[in-house]
Amino acid sequence: MKLIIHSHHLEVTPSLKIHLEEKLHLIKKHFDQIIQINASLVVDKAQEKELRQSAELSLHVMGKDLFAIAHHEDLYQAIDQAVSKLDKQIIKVKEKVKNHHRPISAKQISANNPGLNL
Predict the structure, then answer these.
(1) CATH number for region 2-90
(2) Sequence spans of domains, the chain
């Protein structure tokens, strides 16, 4: 897994990088076929204080590109929220891949729906 971190109006500290890597490790537990992750950490001059810091994460897996963005007054919380969104997306992708490789047979369909005649 390749991690690329971009920052805008802030300096990426080692603690911030470690926090991001630890959170992204949780995603890797769910799905290990991740090719690359792009992280953009931004501090804006927004009027609303809670929307000043944002984390944008772009994840590239085989055949899919996933994207999540989160805004918060604390950059660590924004990272946590964006990783949580990506985690939900990666679980859906994993389920689709898992279901695609093991199709449902006609017997399983009729067992689940007794009123259906196949």
Answers:
(1) 3.30.160.100
(2) 2-90
Q: What is the pLDDT of residue 50?
A: 63
Q: How far is CA 15 from the centre of its chain?
A: 21
Tell me the pLDDT tens digit for each residue of 24-54: 888 888 788 888 999 999 988 766 666 688 9
Integer Cα distance of 94 and 49 in angstroms:
36
Query: Which residues are within 8 A (CB) of 43 and not within 5 positions of it... i.e. 6 or more apart?
Result: 8, 9, 10, 52, 53, 75
For the record, the structure tokens of 48 come out as 């609303």
Q: Whose structure tokens read 């950490």?
A: 41
pTM as predicted: 0.77
Token pair 């944002």 in the structure block, residue: 54
CB-based contact 5:20 (threshold 8 Å) = yes
